[in-house]
Amino acid sequence: MYSKAQESKTKQEFWTAFGGYMKPVPSAEGGRISWQNYKTGIKSIFFRMRAERDFASIGMEITHPDQDIQELLFGQFEQFKKLLELETKEPWEWKLLSLDEFGKTVSVVEMRLEGVNVMDEADWPAIISFFKPRIIALDSFWSNVKYGFEGLV
To answer: With CB atoms counted within 10 Å of each terminal CB, which end of the chain scores lower, N or C?
Structure first.
């Protein structure tokens, strides 16, 4: 069992390592980007990467408090589903109006890697190898579709 302080420290070390690994990779538009703190520029739409004790996940999360608007944004993503699959070369899991770990209603499009543990440094290469091509693909996808979300929120 890990203390909260140890878990926090290890996760911080992981994200620092990930950031260093991704630092030389430019965004789809050619600029510098903070990959681990990706900014979509649209309120209520976030790219999330999570590294936990039993899985890693990456995805797009819609957090708007109005469920009708959340459904509208999710529907907009569904319009671009084929483009997402072309960019990522795989199907993603789509969850409309589900509860997150805090009981908040969110909608998520994500991929998960089961059986990895961020607390085990030996798993870091697998987690980074999982995140890297997907966050790059999400960035490329977003650079093509973000204008379809402007004005919706």
So the answer is: N
CA distances (Å), origin 151, targets 41, 46, 49, 148? 12, 16, 26, 8
Q: Is 149 helix (H, G, I), strand (E, B) or coil?
A: coil
CATH number, residue 96: 3.30.1460
Does 2 have pLDDT greater than 80? no
What's the predicted TM-score (pTM) here? 0.93
Chain segment 51-106, per-residue pLDDT in tens:
999 999 999 999 999 999 999 999 999 999 999 999 999 999 999 999 988 999 99
Say how far apart CA 89 and CA 79 lie, in whole Å. Answer: 17
Domain total in the chain? 1
**What separation in angstroms does the CA of 124 have from each of 55, 63, 91?**
11, 28, 24
How many CA within 13 A on the CB side of residue 147?
A: 2
Antiparallel, parallel or unpaired: β 93-99 and 105-114: antiparallel
